[in-house]
Amino acid sequence: MINLLYPLLTKEIPTDLSDEDVVKEFVLSNNVAFFDILYKRYSGKVFGKCLSILKSENEAEDAMQEIFMKILLNLSKFSGRSKFSTWLYSITYNYCIDSIRRRKKDKSVLVDDMSSEHDSADDDIEDRFIMETNVKRLKVILEELPAADKAILLMKYQDDFSIREISGMLDKSESAVKMKIKRAKQKFKKLHSEIFKNTL
In the chain, where does the domain assigned CATH 1.10.1740.10 lie? Predict the structure, then answer.
């Protein structure tokens, strides 16, 4: 664990600081006690996100440790233009997708979506369809979706990120993000029909 690799300094540090203030204090003082605060706040969430994408506890644990090492080395690059949690999730998402590219050669991650027309009426129907799917079925379908589709749906519906935030995380235009989400929702709906075709 990172907080064991870097022993805390003895000086008492307030733990009610905002994430952004903690980052500033760490950058100014280089005191790893501030980093430990961030680790305690987010390590569980990062592990959960890694697990939801990578589907392996061992891989998720390794990824979480690698991500926090990456964060430790790059905190000075955090610009503050977005929330720290958004920046952290962006790094988590990209690390996991890169990991899948290297280890599993998931072609769905490598293919870049082409832009096309966006049908908002269809999207509203698909949004409602996903939101009304019961939790048990939702888990089954998400496990069957390609990693990139699953991740982008989790970003939108579980983490409630805006199109603009997702666009920044993925370094893609907002129209490209909308198209990726639309296609992921269509795959979700198709899988639901295939898996549960014999049930009401």
Answer: 2-105
- CA distances for 58 relative to 79, 93, 102, 177, angstroms: 32, 17, 16, 30
Fold annotation for 2-105: Rna Polymerase Sigma Factor; Chain: A (1.10.1740)
- Looking at the chain, which residues constitute the CATH 1.10.10.10 domain(s)? 109-195
Q: Which fold has domain 109-195?
A: Arc Repressor Mutant, subunit A (1.10.10)
Residue 45: CB atoms within 10 A of its CB come to 15
Q: Residue 27 to residues 33, 133, 156, 197: CA-CA distances in angstroms? A: 12, 44, 31, 55
Whether 22 contacts 38, CB under 8 Å: yes
The whole-angstrom separation of Cα 35 and Cα 19 is 10
Express each pLDDT in 134-183 by its tens digit: 677 777 887 888 888 888 888 888 788 888 888 888 888 899 999 998 99
- Please tell me the pTM assigned to this model: 0.64
Report the SS3 class of residue 135: helix
Distance CA 164, CA 175 (A): 10
Residue whose entry in the numeric block shows the structure tokens 């790059």: 74
